[in-house]
TrEMBL record:
The keyword Zinc does not apply. InterPro entries: Trp_biosyn_TM_oprn/chp, Trp_synth-assoc_CHP. Residues 185-216 are annotated as: Disordered. Pfam families: Trp_oprn_chp. The lineage of its organism: Bacteria, Bacillati, Actinomycetota, Actinomycetes, Mycobacteriales. Signal peptide: none annotated. Keywords: Membrane, Transmembrane, Transmembrane helix. The chain crosses the membrane at residues 12-36, 56-79, 86-108, 133-154. This is Membrane protein.
């Protein structure tokens, strides 16, 4: 009987990965609703105006990636082996994309031009811009959770593959041992001057253990 512990371990790892993916999806959904950049403008004809760009406006990929992570969490229940590894690679790629979006808000020297374009504010009327980091921090946390989930999925796929490969390996080793034993018996019979085919008989046929006693 196969040891059930690898099954429980694999299910536990997949469950952990699913929790991480759902957490990452929730963080991305929150990041899409939080403000990322505030654009201020003044055209000289009216009072100063400001436009708040949320994460969804700053990057339209946040919500689709969140849905992708939820789909990955659901699919992890139904696949094993190489398909599970592909899900892990897909999750890792998504984490890199989200991490880049989050870090770019800190790394880009000036976001005013892009913010003005997204807010449909003419550059001539642009007064300034202000970054808000809560949404980017949520996206970065989602990226960390996603890459951790990808690592757990890859490990669970390896554990599952090892579990199913073990019985086949044992059968292969047993077959090889049987073949080696049969070959050894033939050579032993030849060394003793006996014909190794003398005792080969049909299944179920009675065996003559002492043929030399016939006729005595």
């Amino acid at each position: 009987m196969a040891d059930p512990r690898p099954d429980r371990r694999t299910r536990l790892m997949i469950g952990i990965a699913q929790v991480l993916l759902v957490t990452a999806a929730a963080a991305l959904w929150a990041a899409a609703r939080l403000p990322w950049v505030i654009v201020r403008s003044f055209d000289g004809l009216g009072p100063p105006a400001s436009v708040t760009l949320t994460g969804a406006a700053w990057s339209t990929a946040l919500r689709p990636v969140a849905l992708l992570l939820l789909a990955t969490a659901a699919a992890a229940l139904a696949v094993r082996g190489w398909p599970l590894r592909m899900l892990a690679v897909l999750a890792a790629g998504a984490s890199l994309a989200v991490g880049y979006l989050a870090v770019s808000l800190w790394a880009v020297p000036d976001v005013a031009a892009r913010a003005a374009d997204l807010a449909h504010v003419p550059l001539l009327t642009l007064v300034g811009s202000e970054r808000r980091y809560a949404g980017a921090a949520a996206a970065l946390a989602a990226a960390v959770c996603t890459v951790a989930a990808a690592a757990v999925l890859m490990r669970s796929a390896s554990a599952s593959a090892a579990k199913y490969a073990a019985p086949a390996l044992r059968r292969s080793m047993a077959g090889r041992d049987d073949a080696e034993m049969s070959e050894r018996m033939i050579w032993d019979a030849l060394d003793q001057g006996r014909d190794p085919t003398d005792h080969v008989s049909e299944p179920g046929a009675p065996q003559d253990h002492d043929s030399n006693t016939e006729g005595r």
